[in-house]
């Protein structure tokens, strides 16, 4: 006959087997320890000392604790399916009411058919006796779910005891040893007395041996690039779907020694270790958007400790029921890993190729030079969107390794044991301990001691070599670096090298090798030419001899090798003369190069030169290109070198790195002027072009003052165009002024100027406006405003306000003609990005004229992304392309 009902009652064995899953014996013991700690929290608020005693032998597992006991009417919840004890306490570890049930089934070998019996008993504080029950194998074979309630007089108040037996031996000697190690790591915060709210000790004893907490990490307190360890606190994760906010803390640093067994990320939830020493995706590593990067053998000094706690439901945390894995798909994980990437990335970049033992070892906690007095620095992130981190460019440690390498190449080292550091030494006092170890780490040969002064001379030779090579047309920075990396660190080295040897350097072909040899070989007569030029020759009437001065410059330009720094340093003059547009000598408005000391220092003193002018060269047979070349060789090369070394000064006061301009931006600006402006103004009677370097100084031109919004100015009375190195300007307005002054089509001039600067902002704004309209957002152009409806709108181009909404997005737009470029945030832009966080967006619009395509990338919260230069943030191509959302417009 057909059945009228279906029997859905569970099979006891299968149900308990499914709960225990692939739980290991060690994980099962941890579940019972978790229960004991939660009971300790519930009963004593972690204010009374407690002990958890574990004995394992063969097929028997014994777990006893004095954490407060379980009331008689709740003892059944330790094994009854679907039941749990009263509301979990604050900071509860267990959130699924499955721990003891899974553990008892696994420790008895239920899945293997070896389960014998389990004794469960507990006596609450104040109870007259203990209550409990037994679970044996026959019980699993019955339909009846009831067990006999038993009393026990032998158990003390506040104690719980669980004994599980199996018919076969489950515990081996190696598994017992592993259990001790795992308990030491998993409960290190409790055993160290550092768990949330803990004011009393808790002990874990295994087979009569007390478990000690895992030893503390030995950090390197590296002061170089501020690579000392930090603990970031008060990071909150809040959401409507959470019972209470989640508190997050992150400790990160470089270990004193590389250790593959300890490196990586430890993740603690509710002060219990969930994932240990992870170098995979769970540890925040890999190639995904919110990942730090791929962990390699070079990162085995990096250590991260990530801690999340909640006073609410522990199941809010992104872990599985076995407390072994992280759910990377959860919304909490997404926020968690985003913070990890932002805070850990600078340390991740400090791999063993940069921070080797020689650099790490001198800065242990007892070192005189240990940062933060040899302690982990605590950083409260609640008050800032951009907490302090190590220098992202790792400029100091990179420079230390380079300069040390120059000494090793020469087979010498500065013996600071016998010499005190010079006032302007190559190395700061904090760097000297690392230098003294690094120099011998890099060399297998015996090194000869030298003085600090002699050590600096080697570096000066390298600088002179770099400047000379950069003065050669079509020799880029990569070739210069390859030459130095190949062991050529002075002009004498290049003079001694054959062309065949130079051609073996990457990027140096036959023509380049020929140019290098021509440039570095000394010129006969150069000293005489310079001496005559700087003597400022005069004619018979006692006036500057303009004809002879011009002739001397032509002779200099005809030389294979232009004057080097050593040539200039040998002169005893104050300036180099040149002719103004009327072919008269001028020491104020012509090409005015400062005295030899300032020139040798690389334009470091802004009192000596505030701007450099290129005269109108179309008149009186002046060769415009030659004089541009002269300026580039004698001026721009030295200026860019000064920026590279971050040694700009205002007057006599040294300024911070952020006040100087990245060398690439200066070179890019000069290239645009050199390649496009000369072409543009060649047909309209070229005016004087003045390139104003951004050193934070305001330049006044008659009644106008340069500001962030006015980086270009044409002065008709003086016939000069003044440009800042960033020069993003209103080309239409400038073109109109030039057209009125010199003739020609303003539209044509504007197009050439726009091409010179790559300024496609208006077209980019139109495209972004259309995209935001399509996304149902109201767009407000705020490029010429400081405030909009009372809100500060500096540092962005448009506001995008959702229709019907009130929270605007602040959008900065960058237009480019190539996707192979970096993006700079300058002026107010980085400050606003930092202040606004996720409300600030960077949009990059790329116009590819070759393929006639237009693409847009949207990057939210650029302040949380990777950048390289403070204040003038440089966001690399991979960051804005891979992390941004791409839209193909055409």
Please work out how many helical segments DSSP would assign: 26
- The termini sit apart by 71 Å
**In terms of per-residue confidence, which ranges show pLDDT below 50 for 5 or more consecutive residues?**
572-731, 752-759
Strand order of the largest sheet: 5-4-3-6-2-1-7-8
Name the helicity range: 25-40%
Provide mean pLDDT, rounded: 75
Q: Strand-residue fraction?
A: 15-25%
Number of strands: 36
- Approximate shape: elongated
SS class: alpha+beta
Question: Sheet bearing the most strands, described?
Answer: 8 strands, mixed
Q: What is the radius of gyration computed over CA atoms, rounded to a whole number of angstroms? A: 36 Å
Structure report:
Mean pLDDT is 75; it is low at 572-731 and 752-759. Helix 9 (395-410) crosses helix 10, helix 11 (452-470) packs across helix 12 (477-485) and helix 21 packs antiparallel against helix 23 (746-757). This protein is 32% helix and 20% strand. The chain has 890 residues and is an alpha+beta fold. The longest helix has 21 residues, at 624-644. It is elongated and about 125 Å long. The protein has 26 helices and 36 strands. The two termini are 71 Å apart. The strands form ten sheets. The protein has an eight-stranded mixed sheet.
């Amino acid at each position: 006959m057909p059945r009228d009902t279906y029997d859905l009652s569970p099979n006891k064995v299968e149900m308990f087997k499914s709960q225990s899953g692939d739980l290991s014996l060690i994980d099962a013991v941890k579940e019972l320890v978790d229960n004991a700690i939660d009971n300790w929290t519930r009963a004593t608020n972690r204010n009374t000392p407690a002990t958890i005693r574990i004995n394992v032998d063969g097929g028997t597992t014994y777990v006893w604790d004095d954490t407060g006991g379980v009331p008689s009417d709740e003892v059944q919840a330790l094994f009854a399916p679907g039941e749990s004890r009263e509301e979990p306490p604050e900071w509860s570890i267990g959130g699924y009411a499955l721990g003891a049930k899974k553990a008892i089934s696994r420790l008895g070998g239920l899945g293997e058919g070896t389960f014998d019996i389990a004794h469960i008993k507990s006596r609450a504080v104040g109870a007259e006796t203990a209550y409990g029950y037994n679970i044996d194998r026959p019980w699993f074979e019955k339909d009846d779910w009831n067990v006999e309630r038993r009393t026990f007089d032998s158990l003390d108040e506040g104690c719980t005891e669980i004994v599980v037996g199996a018919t076969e031996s489950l515990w081996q000697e190696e598994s017992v040893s592993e259990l001790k190690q795992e308990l030491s790591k998993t409960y290190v915060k409790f055993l160290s007395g550092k768990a949330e709210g803990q004011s009393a000790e808790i002990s874990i004893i295994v087979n009569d041996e007390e478990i000690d907490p895992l030893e503390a990490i030995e950090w390197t307190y590296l002061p170089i690039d501020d690579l000392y360890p930090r603990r970031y606190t008060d990071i909150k994760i809040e959401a409507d779907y959470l019972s209470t906010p989640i508190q997050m803390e992150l400790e990160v640093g470089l270990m004193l020694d590389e250790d593959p067994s300890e490196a990586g990320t430890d993740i603690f939830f509710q002060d219990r270790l969930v994932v240990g020493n992870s170098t995979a995706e769970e540890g925040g590593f890999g190639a995904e958007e919110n990942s730090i990067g791929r962990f390699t053998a070079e990162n085995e000094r990096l250590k991260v400790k990530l801690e999340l706690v909640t006073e609410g439901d522990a199941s809010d945390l992104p872990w599985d029921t076995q407390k072994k894995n992280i759910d990377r798909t959860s919304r909490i994980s997404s926020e968690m890993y985003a913070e990890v990437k932002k805070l850990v990335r600078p340390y991740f970049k400090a791999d063993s190729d940069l921070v080797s033992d020689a650099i790490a070892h001198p800065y242990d906690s007892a070192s005189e030079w240990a940062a933060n007095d040899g302690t982990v620095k605590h950083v409260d992130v609640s008050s800032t969107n951009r907490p302090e981190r190590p220098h992202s460019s790792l400029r100091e440690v990179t420079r230390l390794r380079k300069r040390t390498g120059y000494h090793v190449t020469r087979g010498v080292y500065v013996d600071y044991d016998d010499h005190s550091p010079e006032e302007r030494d190559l190395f700061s006092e904090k760097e000297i301990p690392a230098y003294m170890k690094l120099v011998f780490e890099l060399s297998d040969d015996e090194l000869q001691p030298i003085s600090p002064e002699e050590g600096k001379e080697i570096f000066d030779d390298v600088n002179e070599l770099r400047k000379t090579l950069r003065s050669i047309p079509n020799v880029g920075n990569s070739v210069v670096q390859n030459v130095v990396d190949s062991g050529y660190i002075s002009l004498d080295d290049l003079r001694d090298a054959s062309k065949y040897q130079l051609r073996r350097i990457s990027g140096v072909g036959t023509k380049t090798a020929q140019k290098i040899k021509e440039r570095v070989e000394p010129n006969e007569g150069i000293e005489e030419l310079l001496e005559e030029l700087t003597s400022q020759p005069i004619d018979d009437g006692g006036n500057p001899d303009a004809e002879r001065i011009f002739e001397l410059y032509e002779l200099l330009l005809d030389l294979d090798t232009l004057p080097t720094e050593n040539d200039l340093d040998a002169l005893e003059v104050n300036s180099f003369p040149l002719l103004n547009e009327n072919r008269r000598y001028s020491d104020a408005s012509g090409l005015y190069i400062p005295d030899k000391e300032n020139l040798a220092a690389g334009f470091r003193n802004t009192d000596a030169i505030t701007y450099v002018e290129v005269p109108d060269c179309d008149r009186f047979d002046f060769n415009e290109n030659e004089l541009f070349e002269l300026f580039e060789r004698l001026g721009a090369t030295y200026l860019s070198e000064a920026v590279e070394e971050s040694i700009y000064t205002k007057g006599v006061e040294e300024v911070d790195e952020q006040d100087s301009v990245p060398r690439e931006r200066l070179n890019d600006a000069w290239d645009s002027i050199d390649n496009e402006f000369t072409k543009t103004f060649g047909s309209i009677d070229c005016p004087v072009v003045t390139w104003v370097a951004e050193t934070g100084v305001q330049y006044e031109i008659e009644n106008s003052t340069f500001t962030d919004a006015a980086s270009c100015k044409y002065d008709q009375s003086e016939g000069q165009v003044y440009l800042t190195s960033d020069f993003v300007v209103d080309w239409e307005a400038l073109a109109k002024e030039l057209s009125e002054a010199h003739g020609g089509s303003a539209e044509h001039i504007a197009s050439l100027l726009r091409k010179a600067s790559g300024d496609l902002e208006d077209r980019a704004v139109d495209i972004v406006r259309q995209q935001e309209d399509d996304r149902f957002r109201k767009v407000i152009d705020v490029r010429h405003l400081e405030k909009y409806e009372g809100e500060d709108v500096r540092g962005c181009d448009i506001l995008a306000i959702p229709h019907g909404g009130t929270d605007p997005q602040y959008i900065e737009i960058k237009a480019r003609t190539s996707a192979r470029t970096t993006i700079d945030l300058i002026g107010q832009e980085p400050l606003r990005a930092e202040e606004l966080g996720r409300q600030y967006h960077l949009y990059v619009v790329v116009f590819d004229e070759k393929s006639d395509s237009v693409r847009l990338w949207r990057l939210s919260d650029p302040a949380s992304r990777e950048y390289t230069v403070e204040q003038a943030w440089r966001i690399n191509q991979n960051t804005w392309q891979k992390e941004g959302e791409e839209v193909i417009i055409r």
